[in-house]
Structure formats: C-alpha cells, structure tokens
Specification:
By secondary structure, the protein is an alpha+beta fold. Helix content is about 30%, strand content about 30%. About 40% of the residues are buried.
Length: about 300
C-alpha cells in the first residue's frame, strides 16, 4: 500500500474528524472544529497539520505546533494519529517524521508527544527516542444513567451558579480564572503564558465549546470556579477543564460547577461524558470517581530532545 503524506486541506476536515473519532474515541471532535483549529491558529503557534492518504482515503493525521503559551521557550508538540484499521503499516512513522521535521526546522529544543497506554504505542514512542514523563487517565461516564449528586437546595451566601453565556459581554474574568487554574495543573509542560486574545480564539470561540453548558461559580460576583464543556452534537459531552481560583479552593466549588454542568448536559440530551486527568491530580480524580466516571483509556506524556534522534 502506497501512503502519501501531504499538508491538510480544508476539504479534509470531515475525514480527519472521522480518523480522530476512531483513534481517540474519548475526544470531542467535529469537522467544524478540525477546520477551525487550522484556520484560526495563532501565528506564534506555527501549527502544521499533515494527513496520510492511501488509495484516495485519509488514514492518518498529525499535528505539529510550538507551545507558544508556555514561558519555557523551544517546546514543540507532535500528535500523530492513525486509523486503528491501518496501524502497523508505517503510517505513524511517516506522519511523525513530517511533524518532527517541521518543528526541528523551527529550532525547537524539546519535542512532546502523547502515546496511548498500550504496549504497541509505547514501544513505538520509545523506539523513536521518546521518554515517558507523566501518565494520564481518560474517563467515561454513562451520563444517561449516572446517579449524579443533587445540587444543594440553597447555595451559601454570595455564591451563584451561572453559565459562560452570561459572560458574553466580557469573558475576561473567565480567562483569568482559567489561566490561573491551568498554570497550577500537574504537567511537565507548563501552560502559563496564554494571552487573552489567543484564549478567545482557542476556547471562547471554539466551535465545540458549549457556552450554555459551561458552568461558572461566582462568589461575591467574582468568578471562583468553572467547568468548561464541549459537545459534538451527537450526544457526547467533554470536560475541557474544571478548576478553582487559588483563593477559593477547598470549598467544593469545582465539584459544584461540574455537577451543575453535567446535569444541564443530560437535560440537553447528552448521553456520554468524557474527561481526562493527570494521574497525579488526586483531587479531580476523586471528584470524577464520585460522579461515576470510570477509566476508559490512558496515555503517557513523552518527550525527547531533537539532538537525541
């Protein structure tokens, strides 16, 4: 089978989405968001997307980008995905090579990738010089049948439940809360330098972000906690991030935000919910387990220096 690796075209969006759904069944993806990410990527991200084509069919995709929203310079991220029906044919190697070539040409000093938590994927990464750093868990909730915790009959004084849509006139308070919570997440690649302008494009205006299901907890009128929701129009709900500002932690506000979001999602017709957590993020894993989420898959954050390969 002859495989051709070429740049992504907008007309590939649906095929790429199908590959993503088969390779990452726990990820929220739509053709609209695939096309959006490429068209709206900040210039500093240096995003390139490559597709692998065989017999006129897209059988794999790879993204290569610079982590421009990190204060640590020179960090590149490669994400190769192959349709499970076509694994073992050299497609992943070809895609990874194209992605790495793009990033090394930009002078990146470290390459980050995420390998499925299975022997074949981990061996593939290790043969190419990637070392395991951190483990991640992907969890699934049968939202249609889940026994979600009830919301309190009355909230504490000064505490309100709102939606992201309520902040349409000025979403900056949500950006500030998200930036603070994200910077504190356990990871070997710190995201601590995202600008408000980039956040608007990548999160607020993202086609899959559901502003009505994204829940915000305010205390005294200030954003204290949030749970970001993405949906795909096919009954699938994904938690893009749940967090609490430092001054309000330890009060159960993140759990409140997520419980309210999940309840709204079920009322809106969502039947499956997915989320991901770093294996060391014990507080959020405990919240998700209490909701009824169960481990569905996993991956490993891996990295290598270009000079090693």
């Amino acid at each position: 089978m002859t495989v051709t690796v070429r740049p992504f075209h907008r007309s590939d969006a649906r095929d790429v989405c199908d590959v993503r759904r088969r390779a990452l069944p726990y990820a929220i993806s739509t053709p609209q968001s695939v096309a959006w990410e490429v068209a709206e990527a900040p210039a500093a991200r240096q995003l390139r997307v490559f597709v692998a084509e065989a017999a006129g069919r897209v059988v794999g995709v790879a993204k290569a980008s610079v982590r421009h929203d990190s204060s640590t310079p020179g960090q590149g991220v490669v994400v190769p995905l192959v349709d499970p029906a076509h694994c073992g044919r050299g497609i992943g190697s070809a895609l990874l090579a194209a992605a790495e070539d793009h990033l090394t040409g930009l002078g990146t000093t470290r390459l980050h990738a995420y390998a499925h938590d299975d022997p074949g994927s981990l061996a593939f990464a290790e043969r190419r010089g990637y070392r395991r750093l951190r483990q991640g868990h992907y969890l699934r909730l049968d939202l249609a049948r889940a026994a979600l915790p009830p919301l309190p009959d009355a909230l504490p004084p000064g505490v309100e439940l709102r939606t992201a849509a309520d902040f349409g006139a000025d979403p900056r308070p949500l950006f500030e809360a998200d930036a603070e919570a994200t910077a504190d997440e356990p990871d070997d690649l710190t995201v601590d330098a995202m600008t408000y302008e980039d956040w608007i494009i990548q999160f607020w205006e993202h086609p899959d972000t559901d502003l009505d299901l994204t829940t915000v907890v305010t205390v005294g009128g200030e954003v204290a906690a949030f749970s970001v929701a993405r949906t795909d129009g096919q009954g699938r709900y994904g938690s893009e991030g749940t967090g609490t500002r430092r001054a309000h932690r330890g009060r159960g506000l993140a759990k409140l935000a997520k419980a309210a979001s999940l309840r709204r999602a079920r009322d809106a017709g969502c039947t499956e919910a997915f989320t991901s957590n770093d294996a060391a993020n014990a507080p959020m894993l405990a919240i998700n387990t209490a909701f009824g989420y169960r481990r569905f898959a996993g991956d490993w954050h891996c990295a290598r220096e270009p000079a090693d390969g």
